[in-house]
Write a structure and sequence with these properties.
It is built from eleven helices and eight strands. By secondary structure, it is of the alpha/beta class. α9 packs across α11.
Amino acid sequence: MTDLQQETAQNGEHSAPVEAWDAIAALYDKHVASGEVDLATAGLRLAGLQSGDTFLDVAAGPGGLSLPAARLGANVLATDWSPKMIEHFTARVRAEGLDAEGRVMDCLALDLPEDSYDVTGSLFGVMLVPDQAQALREMVRVTKPGGRVLLIAYGNPAEFEALHVFISAAQAVVPEFEGPAEDEPLLEFQVADPDVLRQRLIDAGLTNVTVDTSNQERITMRTGQQLWDWCLGGNPIPGMLVADLTDEQRADIIQVLDGMVRERSVGNGPAVLTAPLNIGIGTK
């Protein structure tokens, strides 16, 4: 077991320490965040975000939700417990000249006054928090009365194509590769059931709660290396799953992924892998 795996076990079976998120921040910024723009914009529009609104992004990563919010004209604060994620967010903000700020902050205890933001949101961030109920209560606390809270999370894991392609490629090279335990679902799927997400938002103190299931994440890939980088850049768990593999095994898995990507390509275009989304919105 690697040091990172041991530290993760101490922090909770499927949670990962801040160092693990720091370690993948560059990969996330380069290979993952840019592909989140369309789904982030769809969620922000469903939440009714307007130019001039104050917007808080919780567990923001390098800004998959907060950068699109700033481009829509909102006054944005992005928070994440990973300093490296905030560094990448801040660099993007400076490069584009956006009205946005990034701060290192724990989503379980936001260092912000209550009733402060018109819209508070999280894209693939709070969905991963073991104590999600507390994180949602904090999101509601800092939202203005009449404001909206937005949570974007993955839907049915059986339809998460990138995950299954990655595991299949790994098992083609290392037959004993198990992947995530089926009887202990990963945290990113804790609100995969729309009814569970709806109830958690209600329990956090929201009204007029809706859960939209009509959107999908669309992951476009041209090579196996791109898919490998996307999987390892989006979450520390895949990196931990392959931590004990040799360099030769990793290279062989990427080669298998390359063939699987080509099989899914149409003409000269990229392969498109999809994942279902649950977009939950409620009013304070």
